[in-house]
Write a structure and sequence with these properties.
Bound molecules: zinc ion
CATH topology of the largest domain: Zincin-like
Order of helices and strands: EEEHHEEEEHEEEHHHH
Radius of gyration: 21 Å
Strand content: 15-25%
Largest sheet: 4 strands, mixed
CATH class of the largest domain: Alpha Beta
Shape: flat
CATH architecture of the largest domain: 2-Layer Sandwich
Strand order of the largest sheet: 4-5-7-6
Structural class: alpha/beta
Number of domains: 2
Number of strands: 10
Amino acid sequence: MSDIPYKLVRSRRKTLALTIDSSAQLVVRSPMRLSEDIIREFIRKKAHWIAAKQRQINDFASKQSPLVLADGENIMYCGNSYAVSRGGVSEVVVEDRFIKIPESMTIKDFANWLRKQCKIIVCQRLNYYANFMGEKYVSVRFSGARSRWGSCGARNTLNFAWRLVMCPQFVIDYVIVHELSHIAHKDHSARFWGRVSTVMPDYKQAQDWLRLNRRLMDII
Ligand SMILES: [Zn+2]
């Protein structure tokens, strides 16, 4: 049997643990000094389990087809699912359960529209929370990042992924509160999380939502 490729993470833990990450890669968490021979042997014994998990993740990923702007397709916007309806409008209209999109609009145009909406929604919430928390940021930008929802630079410049506009309000709020909390704490220390939870006690629900809906990063 050929060896299964893996990423090794050593730490001060006592046992070996295998996980499969969202890109279907095998991650091995190991105690500091355990030999790679023992690790490989362990992996071989778990080969069945690893293959099944990797298949599961790859199947899931292949079902997440990219968005097509055609009648009957669905898109998430502000946490709600809307059916796409093409034509009959000269600009994007969100109405009832429909998102009406002009016939001539390309995916790129639509992405630009989403980015614009994101800017409006995030800036408004950002002002609210910055005031509420008494934090001052230097600037705010919107990026096409697919790996993170937000970031706070060393000089308190904030960045948000425009794809955030697909998430529900409480999730957008969480990302904003998270980045604003980095102005005072540039790490993910207990004090940082303390700050986040003072402003948003149930922030873990938002984290769960983001974990479950990570695919939104790749859909458009
Ligand atoms: Zn952070």
